[in-house]
Amino acid sequence: MTSDRRRLEDEGSFSIRNTPLRARQRRDLIERPGRFHIESEDGEVILAPDEGQLRLFWAFRDVESMRQQFPEMWAEAREQLDPDEVDYVSMDLSGLPTREWLEPLLKDADFELFAEWMEMANPDLDANNIPEFPDGLKMRRAGDDDLERLHEIWTEAYGDYGDGDATFNWILETAGWAGALEVDGDVVAFAANAPVERAEGRILTAAVAPEAWGNGYGRLILGAALYQLAAKDAVRATVKVRPDIKPSLRTCADLGFKFSRAGLEYRRPVDEDAIREKREARRVAGVKARFGNWR
Question: Is the pTM here over 0.70, yes or no?
């Protein structure tokens, strides 16, 4: 039996994993510069750079294997964290039927639930569907002089559901196109697209300044992003949204996006001092809950 075949059989025996991975996706993660990978016969942990941050992936033969091996594997992976490079470590949960048994392991590793995410897909891009903009509005390519304003819009629009400065920098480095929407000369919204690959487009981000919400600018900027992808021969586009930001789902649905997949994102800070402070706060709160405030 070849080592590749044995590896595939071993992967098939991993009955639980945090999120489904195709063989090509897993191979890409393991081959990325800066990744950390540890494995045994019963499971594996991969910590890899992803979208400007670090993302954790794991797979195990069964629940008991994970309970026994994940803490030690994570302890080794944690040694790779550099607070000067990333803002946090993220981990998606997608496709797990139940996670009650997982919560204690995640808590011990200082991962906390951040937010739900949803991937929406538009399978019917049309390069002939040219968006129109009302008088007083101007759509143009974003430039270096816009970066400070784009960061301001991005930070304020996502608020508590933001992804950190390292992710914003990654978007700027990755984007093949970024467009800005002006109202009477002021930028009020923007979107950024990844380069089209294999007729597949991806909208990396789209945001409207909060003071400009309620004017339909989200639909305009998202429509412009779809047209740009279609003009580059994409036939399908995806975008990741936060259902907690209510207008995002409605705007995507209005433009023909349909549900593709969803999951939960957990995050862990890379600031160990902050983690220790949070643990101490939990400990004190637990003592008060049990014995009152007399201490």
Answer: yes
